[in-house]
Design a protein that fits this description.
Layout: H1 6-15, H2 22-25, E1 26-30, E2 33-36, E3 41-42, H3 47-61, H4 65-92, H5 101-114, E4 119-123, E5 132-137, H6 140-145, H7 154-168, E6 173-178, E7 187-192, H8 194-205, H9 210-216
Antiparallel strand pairs: 1-2, 2-3, 4-5, 5-7, 6-7
């Protein structure tokens, strides 16, 4: 085996994918500053911080807290997928809409998994019907809040809606139809047109299960 020159080794490390070791993904840029291997500023927070933030927001705005978190997730996802698209184009020399969609999605998600957002699986088999499903395991929000009998991962719903909107080149909406905080084993999200998401939102409020909602759609 021929050893790579040091410059080539550095290049290989830069383009390495699916690196799940936090020690190789995070680095200290300056005192008190934590950045990812892509140079993104980030921070580590405790479960108490997540719970406290959620409770404080609900105390301030009541039922509007979910919608605020959804919009925050949507805007955050829009910026993140835009930055991701630039990285992919720089590395592979082509836009992401010319790449295999499943590969693009996995490459987008793995840094978020390293950062503690959980692991996911997505179902694109109903795209022709205008529906995309995402299963999320170990949601940072739901895992921190625990079983309170309702969906809590509004930020994720907005983020998924934003990312799939970008990839589909049309406005999509998202909703969580099953949550770990409802006592379920994992969280499930539905992404589709605003009309269908509004219908799903009504059924969620009425207490319908994810299975019932999917069958009605």
């Amino acid at each position: 085996m021929t050893a790579l020159p040091s410059a080539d080794i550095q290049d290989a490390r830069h383009v390495m994918h699916n690196v799940y070791s936090p020690e190789r993904f995070f680095s200290a840029a300056a005192q008190g500053a934590l950045v990812t291997r892509f140079g993104q500023r980030t921070m580590l927070v405790s479960e108490d911080f997540i719970v406290g933030f959620q409770l404080a927001l609900e105390e301030e705005v009541g039922d509007a807290a979910g919608q605020i978190m959804y919009r925050c997730g949507f805007e955050w996802g829009r910026v993140d997928i835009t930055n991701f698209e630039t990285r992919m184009r720089d590395e592979f020399g082509r836009p992401i809409n010319k790449m295999h969609l499943k590969m693009v999605l996995e490459q987008w998600w793995w840094p978020l998994q390293v950062m503690g957002w959980g692991c996911w699986s997505f179902d694109l088999s109903h795209r022709d019907e205008g529906l995309i499903f995402v299963d999320l395991y170990d949601s940072a929000v739901a895992r921190s809040i625990g079983n309170i009998g309702r969906v809590v991962c509004h930020f994720y719903a907005g983020m998924f809606a934003s990312v799939f909107s970008h990839l589909a080149a049309r406005e999509l909406s998202g909703i969580e139809i099953q949550c770990y905080s409802m006592g379920e084993a994992f969280c499930k999200f539905l992404i589709g047109s605003s009309k269908r998401i509004n219908a799903a939102q009504f059924w969620v409020r009425e207490g319908a299960s994810a299975k019932d909602i999917i069958e009605r759609l």
